[in-house]
Amino acid sequence: MSPIQSHPTTENNDGQPIMQQFDFAANPRYSTPPTFAGLSTLNDVGDYDVGVIGIPFDTGVTFRPGARFGPEAIRAASRLIRPYHVEMDSFPFAHHQVADLGNIPVTPFDISTAVTQMRRGLDEASERSQRLVVLGGDHTIAYPSLQSLYRLHGPLSVIHFDAHLDTWGPYFGADIHHGTPFRKAFQDGLLDPEGCLHIGTRGSVYGPGDQTDDDSCGFERIRASDFIGNGLNSIVEQVRSRAAERPIYISIDIDVLDPAFAPGTGTPEPGGLASRELFHLLRGINDLNIVGADIVEVAPAYDHADVTALAAAHLTYEILSIWGTRH
Q1: Are 121 and 104 in contact (CB under 8 A)?
Q2: Cβ(136)–Cβ(296) below 8 Å
Q3: Which of 77, 113, 130, 145 has the CB geometry, 3.0–4.6 Å to 309, for a possible disulfide?
Q4: What is the reported pLDDT for 22?
Q5: 161 and 197 in contact (C-beta within 8 Å)?
Q6: Could you tell me the domains of the chain?
Q7: End-to-end alpha-carbon separation of the chain, Å?
Q8: Exposed e or buried b per residue across 227-251, where buried means at least 16 C-beta atoms within 10 angstroms of its C-beta
Q9: 25-74 per-position pLDDT tens digit
Q10: Which of 282, 234, 277 is CA-nearest to residue 258?
Q11: Whole-number Å distance between alpha carbons of 240 and 238
């Protein structure tokens, strides 16, 4: 039996070795270890410039559970990803070391304890690289991710893609859950309110007060229905104008996509964005100062043909490709 071929190695502009994806011409995609896009692990490289890290946690959900299995599903779906991004003319893995850092182990039994464990794990990961893509897990993980990045960059502009506001208050006595991360972050002074946006919001809320509360957190809202009248390129310019010249955290709840494009999620809402619209938006802000990102709320138990996991994997690749143009 022939062993799996090792990762091919190139050099960056400084002559340092860079370990690439597995060579899928030598190894069938389904035969390699299940890292994101066939990338090397921390044990393989010892050091890295960009990390992909999972947080398999869904104790903060308020409807359908299952996002704790999101990182595993996203990694499995990412095996289709190839090294060259045509639209960005980018080899995101060629010029700096990108590694799959595995998962941060957190307790499923207590949200507050889990959030502390998440923050410590992200702090440790960011000691080697300030650029991380976090794979959820439910949206609770955005709160410790913002805590960790605040240490490095100060107040952050959040570009939040989601069907929901996630600036709600306590629910059944829990003040931290997947509907509160940006309210908590605002209350802690982690956000730059002049640069924050929600994109793709839609569906019912409990009353007008939900939007008033959201206004008090400083977010500007671009509803999914705005895409009909305003046009995609106009929305790109609105986002750029709002967030330019600020350190930006991109948070993508997969339910921003219409359930036709992302059925595998805990709180699906009809009338959402198409995958192509979301990809275009990300490519339209690829020159802004993006310092971190998450992809959350993939719940594979409700998925069909890995449609949701594929979307999440390719959205992760979009973020990595943005950073890959900056070598």
Answers
A1: yes
A2: yes
A3: 77
A4: 81
A5: no
A6: 46-324 (3.40.800.10)
A7: 39
A8: beeeeeeebbebbeebbeebbbbbb
A9: 778 888 888 899 999 998 888 889 999 999 999 999 999 999 999 999 99
A10: 277
A11: 5
